[in-house]
């Protein structure tokens, strides 16, 4: 079974129109990110000032039908999936994209689970507190999905320390991460995190940061 971590951004709390949606797997090998094109025309002040400037556009910008096709193409080959999110509305957004405008959409190959138990949400906050590069990009759907994934790994695998034991800008971060993964691999439970760093995500975050700095 593959675990995926979900986050979405929406334009305002009243209309709840989707802006962007992201999924990342526990092992970091499967990543989905899409933005609506055109964007909702009535974003809240917060979304207009905080969320919209982080959007990537380009290939990530998709019509509703294209996003539905892309999401189905991403999830169907993964077959049996469990998708975690920290807010019920994320699941609503996911279902809207999956179903699209079809009268009879295909049966979704995933189950959903609200992930807010234990210290998970404090670990998410701790992740952002000690990772200023990611904190500057908070409310980018993929950045937030990655934070939830990191917090989940820390809370559900038996290694010492917490999500703040090292940060991505620490020169010893890679060594720290590999140590945690080796410890995780000794855990008898399935779906152990993968040691391959998400190079594509790292590049993407650098581009977003550079764009925000230039703006």
Instruction: Average the pLDDT over all residues and give the rounded result.
Output: 80
Number of extended strands:
6
Largest sheet: 6 strands, mixed
Strand order of the largest sheet: 4-3-2-1-5-6
Quickly give the structural class. alpha/beta
Order of helices and strands: EEEHEHEHEHHHHH
Strand content: 15-25%
The geometry reads as globular
- Distinct helical segment count: 8
Task: Tell me which oligomeric state these chains represent.
Answer: single chain
Q: C-alpha Rg, in Å? A: 17 Å
Distance N terminus to C terminus? 42 Å
Low-confidence stretches: 158-171, 188-198
What share of the residues lie within helices? 40-55%
Protein model, in words:
The protein has 215 residues and is an alpha/beta fold. The chain contains 8 helices and 6 strands. It has helices at 45-51, 64-75, 88-99, 120-129, 132-135, 141-156, 173-185, 199-214, and strands at residues 2-10, 18-25, 31-36, 61-62, 81-85, 110-114. Strands 4-3-2-1-5-6 form a 6-stranded mixed beta sheet. Strand 5 (81-85), helix 3 (88-99) and strand 6 (110-114) form a beta-alpha-beta unit. Helix 4 (120-129) crosses helix 6. The longest helix is centred in the C-terminal third of the chain and has 16 residues, at 141-156. The chain is globular and about 45 Å long. The chain starts with a strand and ends with a helix.
